[in-house]
Amino acid sequence: MTAPRPYGIFAAFAGPDALLAAVRDLRAQGYSDLQAHTAYPVDELDSALGLRPSPIGWLILLGALLGAVAAYALPVYSTMVAYPINVGGRPLHAWPPFALLAFEGGVLGGTLAAFLGFLVLCRLPAYHHPAFDFTAVDFAAEDCFVVVIRGSDPQYDAQALTRALTEAKAQDIAEVGP
Prior knowledge:
Blueprint: E1 8-12, H1 16-28, E2 34-38, H2 45-49, H3 56-82, H4 95-121, E3 145-150, H5 158-167, E4 172-176
Antiparallel strand pairs: 1-3, 1-4, 2-3
Helix pairs in contact: 3-4
């Protein structure tokens, strides 16, 4: 039986410029399964990591549309199919009050899709993450700039990565277990 691969190699850097330079260098060397942890957003980091845009906007749109359709369909069904009663000569399909309900249903559907989509896309709740085992950096600090080369990267080689990260002026390098 083979030993499980480690989660990856964590390397802490002094600032965002050093982190960006290291990420660009690692991508140029062919590493593709990279992550970065920073205390605040760093411009150009997403493009340097090669990240795709988040699908959360499309999930919110889908949730809003489904919520609006469901909220509109409920009174239409109840007044036109289930209980078609002529009240005061109004038409069975009185759309103005139904449109208000559809708007509210769309807001509710979009909000629920945003919340649930966020949880799913961020893989939450996560009770433990291997990043918590990297003790060299306090992840709540203002000077937290960490790059992670995951063990699932096809080119993962701990010794070569340690050399490359040392050349990139990493302050601390650690291989974190599975």
